[in-house]
């Protein structure tokens, strides 16, 4: 039988199929996401899920900002999958585990159980902007809009990737700012 627990960066044991709020730590989320590159690493340089999460949290109303920061937090425990893979019908098991982690986060951090619509919109907006700024599809505006359903943020906003240590620090600072 396979042990359903794994050990995190801070030494916590997390049940991969049935997480409990006591097993979740913001330091583990920040650390893991800051070392995880978006787009399976198919970017112009390293760009972390943690930075993406901070930017999403800054694009939503204040009441939704903590969900914006944590919306991809399950990836700290499950890994980041490319959207076409994650949405494939045979990946329902992954989406189910992701939902369990998000419900666990809701309980842990006192959030409503559903991701707010503003977070989903900001996530799409950042995805479009990331395609423009950190991947090789920057000159294909029509493809970006078709893929994301929205245009990138205006050209006055440009993503400059942070190194992992900076992303981790900014993620934790944003969390403290939103929970004080």
Strands of the biggest beta sheet: in what spatial order? 1-2
Low-confidence runs: none
* CATH homologous superfamily assignment: Hypothetical protein af1432
Give the N-terminus to C-terminus distance in angstroms: 43 Å
Main β sheet profile: 2 strands, antiparallel
> How large, in whole angstroms, is the Cα Rg?
16 Å
Enter the CATH topology name. Answer: Hypothetical protein af1432
- Strand content bin: under 5%
**Tally the helices: what do you get?**
9
Brief sketch in words of this structure:
By secondary structure, this protein is mainly alpha-helical. Helix content is 52%, strand content 3%.
Polypeptide structure, described:
The chain has 180 residues and is mainly alpha-helical. The chain has a single domain (5-115, 163-179), classed as Hypothetical protein af1432 (Orthogonal Bundle), CATH 1.10.3210.10. The protein has 9 helices and 2 strands. It has a two-stranded antiparallel sheet. Helix 1 (26-34) packs antiparallel against helix 9 (164-179) and helix 2 (49-58) packs across helix 7.
């Amino acid at each position: 039988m396979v042990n359903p627990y794994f050990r995190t960066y801070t030494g916590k044991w997390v049940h991969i199929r049935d997480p409990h709020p006591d097993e979740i730590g913001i330091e583990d989320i920040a650390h893991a996401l800051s070392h995880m590159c978006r787009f399976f690493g198919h970017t112009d340089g390293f760009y972390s899920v943690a930075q993406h999460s901070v930017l999403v949290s800054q694009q939503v109303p204040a009441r939704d900002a903590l969900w914006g920061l944590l919306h991809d937090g399950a990836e700290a425990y499950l890994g980041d999958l490319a959207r076409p893979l994650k949405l494939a019908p045979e990946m329902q098991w992954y989406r189910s585990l992701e939902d369990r982690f998000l419900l666990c986060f809701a309980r842990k951090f006192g959030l409503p159980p559903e991701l707010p619509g503003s977070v989903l919109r900001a996530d799409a907006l950042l995805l479009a902007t990331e395609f423009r700024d950190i991947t090789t599809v920057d000159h294909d505006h029509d493809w970006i809009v078709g893929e994301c359903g929205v245009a990138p943020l205006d050209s006055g906003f440009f993503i400059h990737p942070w190194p992992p240590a900076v992303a981790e620090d900014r993620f934790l600072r944003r969390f403290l700012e939103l929970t004080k």
